[in-house]
Amino acid sequence: MDYRVTIPKPIYADIRAHLLRGEDEEVALLFGHETALTNATVVTIQRWEPVPPQMLVLQRPDVFAVDSAFIVSRVKMARTRNESLFLAHSHPGDPRTPCFSRADDRGEADIYPLLRTRLPGRVHGALVMSPGGCTSRMCLPNGDVVPVDEIRVVGRHIERVVRSKPRNQSDEAHARQQLIWGSHGQGVLRDTTIGIVGAGGTGSVVAQQLIHLGVRNLIVVDKDTVEESNLARIVGARRGDIGMTPKVDVVSRTAHSVDPTICVTALHKDVTQPDVLNMLREADILFGCTDQHYSRMVLNALAVQHVIPFVDLGFLIDIHPESQRVISAVGEVRIIVPGGYCLSCAGVLDAERIKAEKASPEERAAFPRYFTGLDVPDPSVITLNSVIASLAVSVGVDMLVPTMRAVGPCDSYRFNALKGIVNPVLKERHPECGICGAEGRAAFGAALPMPR
Amino acid sequence: MRTERINKEIASAATKYPGAYAVDDSTGCVHLIIPTLPIPAGFTATTARVLVRIPALYPSEKIDLFWMDPAIARSNGADMPNIMSRGVQIAGESWTQVSWHDNSAHDPNRISVLGFVRTIPQWFERQVLGT
């Protein structure tokens, strides 16, 4: 079992600025929510609060003590909000990655019984930060205290502030790309789990590229089976698959033809099913390769809730109804990460289409005038899909192994096929967004119901 | 557990319509029940007990339809055409499901539960006017 703390980048930056602001030890309380994955316990930090100077009964460069009444008041708050609580403090004079001191051990030995009594059944913990790094440990509901294997800071890039396992990977198959990101970068790709929702025109290309890049763990979701019209777009699809083979199995076959040991979890299901969403929480990055707005909405919420970077991609080709000429052909890669916008506040999601896609067959039959145009196929071609898929995979790889930082801040790329240009686009986030804003779902983990 | 946004919107509704309360369902939706929503003249009561379903992923998803107390009827006995179904069981009660769609452009950054509730009396007006 691994133990992980995930912190949205904006929160981490604020905590760090507070804890390392002076020569004395500073203290903060971090509030989060626990999610139990198959092989990991994850606490996502949802909010934090600095301990104000007047609540520090002792504050020196090597020691601190917090007014117990302050702690108790915050524990009460955490109880009403079903939160886990982490006590964070600094070792401002330590240039190395910090270790918990004996004074820290004693302080935590006092506070953990209180947390376990007042906030039972939850994981709590402590975190110590120095200019040289960060260390954390968790107190499990049974009282065991365990070191945290990974502190993951998620923003435009995924930073592993703490990572105990060696990640280097060097092999001849990936030698040329290792010249770009080194054996460490290749190791990061190898150990990453990527979720791909939609295994059609864009998803199959995304999967193919990730497979060749050396990603060894894929979760692929698509409820459809290969149709004849898919042969022109789905990488790896064969005539014999028509009407027989689920699209996810085509991805699986492609992966195993490159490397039989790649682990592909192929889910021939609807992404909005709870068991599928549960599985997707295991992913380090999600790729949304679906043209359904309902699926996009659910993925957007899942990503925001569980602090999983989400790369949404799509292509829209408009054809003039009379002249049959292409009026516009625009693809977009949207990057949903903490501190940025989400598909909801950016106005990407179409509420009417969501309503129609969500409706049962019975509802559609009963009220046909509300549910028109759902089964009209959109124009699509593998050449343009591949451009946008390549861009999306580049973005995803850059999150793990930063190689594109020279591009600067950018949270969306738009490819205009008629003009032959790719533009980076900055999108404005809405601070009061009901999904990614302060009062929305951000970093609530399993504390909120699974979105669907 | 609900988002802070939904909790605040329910609190606003309870302030505007005393007695309003919310019930969560197993799919993550929240049912807001307003016991006494003032309705126009022309019905067997001056207020109606109504239920509004706040979708699990509100405000990405828009609020659609509402449900009302089955006892509400036109005072002249006339039919109400925009009824989708009767005897719908929600939150342990029987409701009449009403066809009432907000056709305005959906802006998740601007919509509110109260905004939707304020449109409900318009449905009752339309039943009286026969439109």
Task: Using brief descriptors, characterize the structure shown.
heterodimer, A: 452 residues, alpha/beta, eight-stranded mixed sheet, 11 helices, globular, B: 131 residues, alpha+beta, six-stranded antiparallel sheet, 2 helices, 6 strands, 23% helix
Protein architecture, described:
The complex is a heterodimer of chains A (452) and B (131). Chain A is an alpha/beta fold and 452 residues long. Chain A has eleven helices and 19 strands. Chain A has helices at 9-19, 68-80, 102-118, 175-191, 203-213, 247-258, 274-280, 293-306, 351-358, 361-366, 382-400; strands at 2-8, 27-36, 40-50, 56-60, 63-66, 84-90, 124-130, 133-139, 145-147, 150-154, 158-163, 193-197, 217-221, 263-267, 285-288, 310-319, 326-336, 412-416, 421-425. Chain A has a nine-stranded mixed β-sheet with strand order 9-8-7-6-2-3-1-10-11. In chain A, strands 14-13-12-15-16-17-18-19 form an eight-stranded mixed β-sheet, with helices on both faces. In chain A, strands 4-5 form a two-stranded antiparallel ribbon. In chain A, helix 5 packs parallel to helix 6, helix 5 crosses helix 11 (382-400) and helix 8 packs across helix 9 (351-358). Chain A starts with a strand and ends in a 27-residue tail after the last strand. In chain B, strand 5 (83-90) and strand 6 (93-98) form a beta hairpin. With 131 residues, chain B is of the alpha+beta class. Chain B starts with a helix and ends with a helix. Chain B has two helices and six strands; from the N terminus they run αββββββα. Chain B is globular. Chain B has a six-stranded antiparallel β-sheet, with helices on one face. In chain B, 23% of the residues lie in helices and 29% in strands. The chains are: A alpha/beta (452), B alpha+beta (131). Chains A and B meet through helix 8 and helix 9 of A and helix 1 of B.
